[in-house]
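Subject line: Sequence and fold of a protein, written as structure tokens
Body of memo: The sequence and its backbone structure tokens, given next.
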Amino acid sequence: MGKYFGTDGFRGEANVDLTFEHAVKIGRYLGWYYGTRLGKKAKIVIGKDTRRSSYMFESALCTGLTAAGADAYIMHVTTTPSVAYTTRVDGFDCGIMISASHNPYYDNGIKVINGNGEKMEEELLLGVEEYIDDKVSVPMATGHSIGRTVDYSEGRNRYVGYLIGMSKFSFKNVKVGLDVANGAAWQIAKSVFNALGAKTYVINDAPDGYNINTECGSTHIEHLQKFVVDNGLDVGFAYDGDADRCLCVDEKGNVVTGDHILYIYGLYMKERDKLINNKVVTTVMSNFGLYKALDKVGIEYEKTKVGDKYVYENMVKNGHRIGGEQSGHIIFSKYATTGDGILTSLKMMEVMLAKEKPMSELAAPVVFYPQVLKNVYVKSKAEAQNDPDVQAAVAKVGEELGDTGRILVRESGTEPVIRVMVEAESDEVCAKYVDQVIDVIAQKGHVVE
């Protein structure tokens, strides 16, 4: 990761950590880079979520892009996966999504997508960072070389058509609840489900610039749980602010996580001989219960670092077809290059209708193990992790748990923190083993007093 861009873009509080000036410079560098490299006017497409500051950043990016000679195509309020899709399908040089995903409204972010619809390569982002820090210069366009802005709402509409055309079933008479988080899925999700014939019930679909993710969406799924039960719905789907993740609620009001989704659709693929390599890609934070369920049906799995970026890289490298995170970032590599919340909900509808089973029955084989996770502030993450006594303590816990649970010790990517997590058959067992390892970390003098 670079100085400004992390695994999911440049993110921070609007005009505090991520400023208007940053956005102008990002636009200028990208416009210059693609124009210079291609020897022609660059075409870059931009989408945004519903945050108040997204409009400011859209203007700033357009200013930078056009000043550098690029044409900026504006999709307006739309989802991250729709920008990735449009970039790839409509032949743009790159795409930009303005969103801080599930963060509160006062944060924002800039995600840069390459021409293949994938997260931008590190090398180019490092070049952007050098320009932000005034280590390199970028010339202004003049005369006929100055760029322009173009309304490109047709890209968003084409994406909606793509989703509608993907469904193999009519949703007629299925009662579906959608929590669009007052965010980017605001108009798109309902349009898709209505077109497919569902009886669609939508909540949190009145964005005002401040209420994105506020007590709603996939990070506050309890509201959708109540809504599904109170209205007797068949299923519910909750998205985050930019709709690249999805969590489900079954007809009984139970949460169906990303781990459940990986199991449900992975098994559905296996049953139809569509699960290439017989593998599902997870992160190390997937629940132990998912792996037990996959073992029972003979599905193999791989584990990556936390982050859909790493999941996707593994899938591309090895040719796997499904992967994702417990948080609901699910990637169907045949159809998309990023997590896509609306696509995920359509795929869950497909399984329900194909198997003629309620969501609760489909998710039942995945029985989550209790989990305890504690954060330990340390003087040096590397020294704490590599301490032989700490490693011995972790190994001992792993040996004692055997096949009844697991321990995971990992470094935070953003804080001076070591995270110690144990999954086992009871909260008491989890807590005992977590504390056992933390005690050794403290005894060896790694903990910040």
About this structure: The chain has a mean pLDDT of 95. Residues 355 and 362 are 9 Å apart (CA to CA). The chain has three domains: 5-153, 167-363, 371-443. Residues 371-443 form a domain with the TATA-Binding Protein fold (CATH 3.30.310.50).
